[in-house]
Design goal:
The complex is a heterodimer of chains A (117) and B (110). Chain A is built from no helices and 11 strands. With 117 residues, chain A is an all-beta fold. With 110 residues, chain B is an all-beta fold. Classes of the chains: A mainly beta (117), B mainly beta (110). The interface between A and B is medium-sized, with 30 and 24 residues.
Chain lengths: 117, 110
Amino acid sequence: NAGVMQNPRHLVRRRGQEARLRCSPMKGHSHVYWYRQLPEEGLKFMVYLQKENIIDESGMPKERFSAEFPKEGPSILRIQQVVRGDSAAYFCASSPKTTGVGKNIQYFGAGTRLSVL
Amino acid sequence: GQSLEQPSEVTAVEGAIVQINCTYQTSGFYGLSWYQQHDGGAPTFLSYNALDGLEETGRFSSFLSRSDSYGYLLLQELQMKDSASYFCASAPYNTDKLIFGTGTRLQVFP
């Protein structure tokens, strides 16, 4: 009964490189969310996906960031040409079909800590 | 816009009771969730209030007052392992994304 799996746990990149963060949702979950957390701050919503569809990307920066959730395989958050300001913890969460109006229990992975040198 | 405000830090001793408040300004409010996050760890779901009143889950209880745009998390019989950050969260406009509060860091002392 594996939970939400994220890898890598830690990722170091130099400015200008690409970062790829992976997330496998819990078994039976069809909804994936990505959040970013800066040190000593709360989680900020980035994007919400279902299989092969981006449902809401209102929290994604317009440039350099993209996300996908293919029919097969994990969800990927991709950051191109990373800058120091991208250093943060990136959390993925998953949920089954929504559990009711407003009630959406999300299950989080352990996160990927991205450090940009 | 959406905003959920919390005190930044709360301290207490083992065995005590502590209340963590959350005031919110959201459009199309549907309910308030609470998550716990230990340092370096993943947020984990604690509680959800859709209606006004108190929800109790073991040592943790959560309260909501829609008329006051206010909620709180109550932790009883505090243990050292309760030292963590606590976030309130809400999903606006019946969307599935969560907007998280500013977070409260709880430190429990022996």
